[in-house]
Amino acid sequence: MTDRHTAAESARPTVAESARHTAAESVEESRLTVALIAAAALAWTAAMLWSARTTITGRISAEMEVTSTAYALPGAVAADLVAGAAVALLVLTLIGSRRTLGASLRFAVATGAGLLVGVLSAIPIITINTAGSLYAIVGGTVAAAATIGGALAGFRVPPVIAAGAAASVGVFVLGFVLNLFQAPVLELLGAGDTESSAKAAQWFSYGQAALSGLAAGLIAYFMLRRHRRRAAGADVKWPLYALAGAGAGLVTVIGEILSRTAGSQVLDLAGKVSEMDRLAQDILSTARLNSGLIVLFVGAMTAMLAVGRTLSPAAEDEDEAQVNSSSSETAYHSNS
């Protein structure tokens, strides 16, 4: 009987710990935190859309408009993906402070909020020229990105969504700052003729991606640790730290996939302008995808290593005690 009680008592902390993890994952983020993330994401999106519209409308020839549109598409898609998720999370947080939404209703509200962001984001692009289908395709792709972001926010892991969105905004800011110093850094990397400049640009891209992944992982880690205090000490499961750290890279990868699929006609049309433009599109597309994968991997590893340093061996000791207790109970029954 003693062995049975010991085994049961050993199992209880595991169940309790699982319940604590589940509770921590479902606790909504603070309204102020989510509002700040949403504001930053919307500002990022507005900047990308304004830059795209200004660049496109400033071109003289139709060919240059097409190539400028193709260059601007991936950045706008990535920004809208984050904005859709952040705004949807803000709406859910505001509603959640008054009532608890079921899974289906939560998903519907989040998707609707993302769709609204997408429609508003598509207007500045579509109104550039309503005669053809080019800008309608771009606007539709942008709207789809925001809707997907909103749908992702519908999953009941608010702290993870918030951490991933904050990390994505942080990566954008870091990339903007690093690009300000791109010219002197390229010189330090030996940029000169065409071949050396290409190699220097490649190393700069890899370095920027690695630093962005490091920043994404750390931002996600600190956001989730901050949420732990809000959840009365309960923490999310460690794989979710990795998911949040990989969020910024996932945004880039998903944005690139959307650009290649939903916006494929735009990219194909830009590639037909000239052989050089087609080659440039292929190189940039591959570089964006590779950078996104680097940010994803480095961000996930950074967040995991950061949270791993805080884990104690208590859980392992607990599991070992449970195994020993189970073995004792088995031996007891055998002797009986």
UniProtKB/TrEMBL annotation:
TM regions (residue ranges): 32-51, 71-95, 107-128, 134-153, 160-183, 203-224, 236-258, 289-307
Biased-composition ranges for Polar residues? 322-336
- Tell me which UniProt keywords the record has, alphabetically: Membrane, Transmembrane, Transmembrane helix
Give the residue ranges for region: Disordered: 1-22, 315-336
Name under which the protein is recorded:
Uncharacterized protein
